[in-house]
Write a structure and sequence with these properties.
Length: 181
């Protein structure tokens, strides 16, 4: 069955079509939820809330643009709304004037370790970091979505990068000590 037909059936609350859409996109959206969540359980909760939101709003999908892009955006918005409701997303509002780029030799960093470090970031930094670095949102878009200023978005990104840089430097020392033996 074509994706357009599945979407049409979902608009009519067809449970089988919803199950098929879930099967098609659950793994991709779970990966997205995992980026924005502290742990696996929180990511599962965010995924379920996202699908509830997707199926509640699927009537608004107008077949303009990518369906996958539309559901990814809804998923990110759902996760952000969850954090707002729980008052977890307390963003730093001070602005750091000159944001410098942080350089790290990423050739020796295992991807799963890097993702673990990102998940350990405080919510306020992890959200901005993921949106900017991993999902290619601009600071203007992030500011609108999180209801903060562009300067705050830049500041939170800078702080996230500094935390990651420090953790990576500490990990590098440990790796080098282990290599010496």
């Amino acid at each position: 069955m074509s994706l357009d037909k599945l979407i049409q059936q979902c608009k009519q609350n067809d449970i089988d079509a919803q199950a098929e859409i879930y099967q098609l996109y659950a793994s991709k959206l779970f990966a997205l939820c995992l980026k924005y969540s502290k742990n696996y359980q929180e990511a599962q909760d965010n995924l379920q809330n996202s699908f509830l939101n997707i199926f509640n709003k699927i009537g608004q999908y107008s077949f303009k643009g990518s369906f996958e892009g539309w559901i990814k955006r809804l998923t990110i918005n759902t996760v952000l709304q969850t954090y707002r409701e729980k008052n977890i997303l307390n963003l730093v509002t001070e602005v750091i004037p000159d944001v410098e780029e942080v350089e790290v030799d990423d050739e020796q960093i295992p991807l799963d370790y890097l993702l673990k470090l990102i998940q350990e970031l405080p919510n306020k930094y992890r959200m901005v970091f993921n949106m900017y670095v991993l999902d290619d949102y601009s600071h203007r878009e992030i500011a609108e979505m999180l209801n903060i200023s562009e300067g705050t978005s830049k500041s939170n990104l800078h702080r996230a990068r500094m935390i990651l840089k420090e953790k990576l430097q500490n990990a590098s020392v440990v790796i080098k000590k282990n290599e010496a033996y």
